[in-house]
Amino acid sequence: MDKIVVTNRKAHRDYNILKVWEAGIELKGSEVKSIRDVRANLNDSFARVENGQILLYNMHISPYDRASVFNVEPQRVRRLLLHKNQISKIAGEVFQRGLTLVPLRLYFNERGFAKVELALCRGKKLYDRRRDMMRREADLEIKRAMKSRRK
User: Fold this and answer.
1) Are 77 and 47 in contact (CB under 8 A)?
2) Pairing state of beta strands 78-81 and 53-57?
3) pLDDT in tens, 64-85
């Protein structure tokens, strides 16, 4: 039973998700406490493969109120923890044209460790997004019609 802290709702709208991995994240103590208080944000965050490591950029974790001197910069670059063979597979797929690493959600697993669900994505075109919106609206109309017929 995972405790989901933050989800990246924009990712599902703006990208086609191809593959998903679970990665640990290297955090300081005050950051973990701030995440437990649900003071994190994944919007506009992304990951890159650099020097055999996967680094997470633009993830905002608000400073913990009671940490005083031990607080760190809210948008610092954070290292994701994966096995070396997973990193090499991801690096091989990212270097294909047009693929991006995007975090989908941040959560605590059963053991209490902070995890990030990392996805390999391809950006959607504007017409793909419009088609998805039209499909969603059509499904809602069908559900409404079925619900009114049952009454």
Assistant:
1) no
2) antiparallel
3) 888 777 788 888 999 999 999 9
Helix (H) or strand (E) holding 7: strand 3-7
Contacts of 57 by beta carbon, 8 Å cutoff, 6+ apart? 45, 46, 47, 48, 77
Q: CA angle, corner 88, sides to 59 and 31, nearest 5?
A: 25
State the CATH number of the domain containing residue 104: 2.40.280.10
**The pair of three-digit structure tokens given for residue 27, joined into one six-digit string:** 């955090």
| Residue 94 resides in a domain | yes
pTM of the model: 0.81
CB 56 within 8 A of CB 80: yes
Question: Is residue 91 included in any domain, yes or no?
Answer: yes
Query: Would you say residue 99 lies in a domain?
Result: yes
Residue 58 lies in a domain: yes
- How do residues 117-139 score in pLDDT, each as one tens digit? 999 998 888 888 898 889 999 99
